[in-house]
Amino acid sequence: MKTIGFIGLGVMGKPMAANLIRKGYSVIVYNRTLDKACDLVEMGAETAGSPEETAKLSDVVFTMVSNDAALEEVIYGAQGVIHGIRTGSAVIDSSTVSPALSQRIASDLAEHFVDFLDAPVTGSKPAAIDGTLLFMVGGKEEVLAEQMELFETLGSKVIHMGPSGSGSYAKLAHNTIVGINNAAFAEGMMLATRSGLEPEKFLQVVQNGSAGSKAADLKGQKIINRDFSTQFSAKLMLKDLKLAAELTNALRMPSPLLDSVKNLFQMTENKGYGDDDLCAVVRNYEDWTQTEIASRAVREARAGGMEQAAAAEPAAGPVPERRKTDRLELSIKLQLSVYQWEQEGGFQGQIIEGTLADLSSSGLQILSSAPLAQDMFIVIHFPQEAGLPPVTAKIIRIVPGDGIFRYGCMLTGLPPHTRLKLEDYIEQQRQ
Length: 431
Description:
alpha/beta, Rossmann fold, N-(1-d-carboxylethyl)-l-norvaline Dehydrogenase, domain 2, Thrombin, subunit H, 6-stranded parallel beta sheet, 6-stranded antiparallel barrel, globular
């Protein structure tokens, strides 16, 4: 059997490599973080010290990395695949990258008489584990035929899309739809929840009606059960949407839905949820409305936990409030991510400088020379030493001055533990 090199052992790559091992292939793995290979070594894999060494020892090299820069380093770096690859072997890239990079790699490897297929996947982590991925493949059909046994080990369907780069084009178009569907599902779920409907009942309506989608089937239970464990992260979805936006610009194609959703996922990352599952895009709506989409069971369990905690609390005298009602004068430098609706329905975003001037029980007052509008949402980034995640606020009052605006901001959707951490940080600044 062929010896398979596998580079990139993340959420998708590791279970793919494991399936090759189970099928009986000799597998050599490489990952920048070596401990990710431990389980695979126990299954029978060998490790290599670099992509170059992996290529030297393999008949076929799979790559599954996070972005263009990572793939360029793996292929072209000082110890890259291109320096060790053997004539007559093949490289299969299952990353989601720009079509231009896929085409360049194919051309450069061809000069070494090495075949290349761009073969991104869909199905996320569960399909990678089960070996039921869908591959969309760009490259020569005869090369795909030669490697079909490997694809059939890892997936349930393989579609040849066309010449080199076609797989990457297909993946960006596909993930544009995935991002839009997940944002649409989140928005509809919030509309139902704010209207007083039970989220789990409305989810049944969606799944059995014409609004049904993979987003509802795969992410509905995760959202209402407050499970944001990663199957495909929000930051990777953002990366893919940015690549898709670059492509639509190059093609001179209007893409208002893509632009809006890209900015929604940018907000998700700015709020500190980038490493969560892509369904965490719903947290934007929860912050804006201060409403959580949770099942009745989750709400009842929380209520029961609070009652138990209250019963266990020993009797004591009155507890002083952590925050005084009077304002605390401050001067803390901040960065603000500012988002604004554009006429065509997209978001316009920018980073501006600001200063936290004071804090009260009702919100924050921020000084900035940038003119902003009432009812705008901003994401506040505190200094790194604060150890605070980005915080969302709404501008509710504006007092213009001599080149400086005072913005009264109401915090939105702030979790209790973050509020306490913010108060502790503010108290430290006063000392």
